[in-house]
Amino acid sequence: MTYRRAAIPALAGGLLLTALLWWAGASTSALHLPGSTGVFGGRAAAELEGWLMPWAYDPPAALRLGAEMSGGIEDTAGTDGNRYLSLYTTAMQIRFCAVFAFFLPGALLLVRRLPPVHGRLPATLLAVWAWGLVAGTLAVTVSAPWLIAAQGHGSYRILPQLAGMISAGRQVLVATALVAAAVTVLAARITAKGAGPLPQEVVPARAARLAATAGTAAIALSLVVLSYHPVAAALQTVSPDGGLFAEPGDLLRQWLLLGAWASPAGVPLGDWLLYRAADVLLLAVVWFALRRLPGLLTRATVPAMAAGAVCATVLGLLASQVLRLATDGAGLRWGLLHMSAVLGGGVPAALTWGLVAGLAATVTLRVAVRRAESAHTTATAQSSTRPQDLVP
Questions:
Q1: What is the pLDDT of residues 301-312, one digit of tens each?
Q2: DSSP state of 247
Q3: pLDDT tens, 333-386?
Q4: C-alpha closest to that of 134 among 155, 153, 107
């Protein structure tokens, strides 16, 4: 599919995702109405407000109240309060623009290399959905410094504050990204009509398995090795001597760890294995996706493989989180809304290790394909040389 045909679905999906997030943030004020508490309940309304608040364009009440109170004391304080409000507005402008800016190139690449035709529609839908989560997380990340400065203490523990803000708003992204992905794929299926043949990459089965294994090994490095509690604790305690970039432990864990696990001390082995089944499911989803990815792509380029590996890791995380929700009987008493708060977590680490897995899979795939072609060429040359053709 050409860039011109792929640009229309990507633009439609990016605009819709941005509009849905804007609408979700604008709905925050409705949760303060008397009827909302009666419909959702006090605790559920508070949880929904926490989910929607990272996408609320209007400043929070505490920030507006602080600006009004400082404005009544003296002119300088009032000016500072207005500047904090301006910083918040700037942060949200950056956030919504960044959502569109990050979603567009990823969706464009996926739709072009993974067009929703010839049995690719489910794969394209899942990949674009996962990329919507990545785009939203990156948008929250790049706009977080302005939000921290708007709170008036941007020079205090900047990295822990940044780590806390990056994880905000992810639950809303799970739903809005799915809607945007569905519209993107539907538009891509329409624009793909009349685009001519859209071939699939021919990849030897052994080379695809080796590439999937190499990529999954990179994911397992984070999920099994770095996520082991003693190793994770060592990452948590990493801290340079003072300064603005002290205490990076929370940020490192967020961008490097896909899970957390410890030995089954004091826990029945069956319960421990059941809990670890979610990690096994994550690795299985990643391996199967990477195994199928080269054959689904119209061309297995490095950017396409890297983006596909990131999306596969995000989908594996979502699958593992859903499995944990299904097997965690203790969380049923808190309600479905409280249990769903874990959905969408771990996307920063999925982005980091998904890129590593994509590069590892691409290198392994090209080496394996080259060796297979060389072996096939050698075997063909040997079979074509008959004994009677040899000159004594």
A1: 999 999 999 999
A2: -
A3: 566 676 777 888 899 999 999 999 999 999 999 999 888 778 767 777 766 655
A4: 107
**pLDDT score of 70:** 53
Q: How far apart are CA 190 and CA 204, in angstroms?
A: 31
CB 345 within 8 A of CB 51: no
Q: Which residue has the higher pLDDT, 311 or 81?
A: 311
Q: How far is CA 31 from CA 17, 26, 62, 248, in A?
A: 22, 10, 16, 35
List alpha helices for the chain, DSSP H.
3-26, 34-40, 42-52, 61-71, 75-113, 121-150, 158-166, 170-191, 205-220, 229-236, 249-256, 269-296, 302-327, 336-339, 347-384
Instruction: Compute the half-sphere exposure of residue 322: CA atoms within 13 Å on the CB side of its CA.
Output: 9
With b for 16 or more beta-carbon neighbours within 10 A and e for fewer, the 39-68 pattern comes to ebeeebbebbbebbebbbeebeeebeebbe
pTM for this structure?
A: 0.90
User: Given phi > 0 = left and psi -120 to 50 = alpha, else beta, which region is 112?
Assistant: alpha
pLDDT at 81: 66
DSSP string across 104-141: HHHHHHHHHHS-S-TT-HHHHHHHHHHHHHHHHHHHHH
Cα gap 181→284, rounded to integer Å: 23
Instruction: Scan for tokens 């999937």, then name that residue.
Output: 212
The C-alpha atoms of residue 361 and residue 345 are separated, in whole angstroms, by 24
Residue 247: band (very low, low, confident or very high) from pLDDT cuts 50, 70, 90: confident
Residues 6 or more apart whose CB falls under 8 angstroms from that of 262 comprise: 228, 229
Cα 167 from Cα 50, distance rounded (Å): 12
Cα-Cα-Cα-Cα dihedral of 94, 318, 42, 144, to 10°? -20
The whole-angstrom separation of Cα 279 and Cα 321 is 9
Q: Which amino acid would we find at residue 250?
A: D
Is residue 110 packed enough to be buried (19+ CB in 10 Å), middle (13-18) or exposed (0-12)? buried
Q: 27-34: long-range contacts at Cβ-Cβ below 8 A with a sequence spacing of 24 or more?
A: 27/52, 28/52, 28/53, 28/56, 28/58, 29/56, 29/58
Query: DSSP for 358-374?
Result: HHHHHHHHHHHHHHHHH
Strand partners, 261: 228
